[in-house]
Amino acid sequence: MENQPFSLIGKPEPRIDAVEKAAGTVRYVGDFTVPGMLHAKLVTSTKAHAKIKSIDTKSAWETPGVRAIVMGDSFPYHIGPILADRPPLAFDKVRYYGEPVAIVVADQEYQAKQAALKVKVEYEPLLVVNSVQQAFEQKSEGAVPSKCAAFSGG
């Protein structure tokens, strides 16, 4: 017997889910429901960098089936896998386009989506920094993270 390393590179590997995927019968997490299950949709930022002036949820609450609307001020903590540097839901300001601002929870997915579209967020735009060079050049409020030693000189 020769002592050669085992390798799959360049060789076909049979996939155990190929038949189900090709037939369209494979079930994903989104295909499962349980009695009483609720659905959530995110309200995301339409600005790249801005202060959150207000969030109006009044018309969203009027949507049938809405059970909860959670905003960042309900959980004003920073999280992150390595550096706890951003909140799960933005509060005070948004740091990138598409940052979650609120979560709408409803009985049905379409109800959560309709209500999320009715949440109105008023922003005050802030400086957008597109590069490290800009961050060093433009030392304006909010452009440089205050807890980042590389930018704060500490």
Helix content: 10-25%
Radius of gyration: 23 Å
Mean pLDDT: 86
Secondary-structure element series: HEEHEEEHEHH
**Sequence of strands across the biggest β-sheet:** 1-5-3
Return residue spans where pLDDT drops below 50 for at least 5 consecutive residues: 147-154
**Distance between the ends:** 61 Å
| Annotation, overall tally of beta strands | 6
Describe the global form: flat
Name the beta content range. 15-25%
Secondary-structure-based class equals alpha+beta
Largest sheet: 3 strands, antiparallel
Total helical elements: 5
Brief summary of the model shown:
This protein is flat.
Keyphrases for this structure?
3-stranded antiparallel beta sheet; alpha+beta; 154 residues
Give an account of the 3D structure.
The protein is of the alpha+beta class and 154 residues long. It contains five helices and six strands. The protein has helices at 18-23, 58-61, 109-118, 132-137, 149-152; strands at residues 39-44, 50-56, 66-71, 93-94, 100-106, 120-125. A three-stranded antiparallel β-sheet has the order 1-5-3, covered by helices on one side. It has a three-stranded antiparallel β-sheet with strand order 4-2-6. The chain is flat.
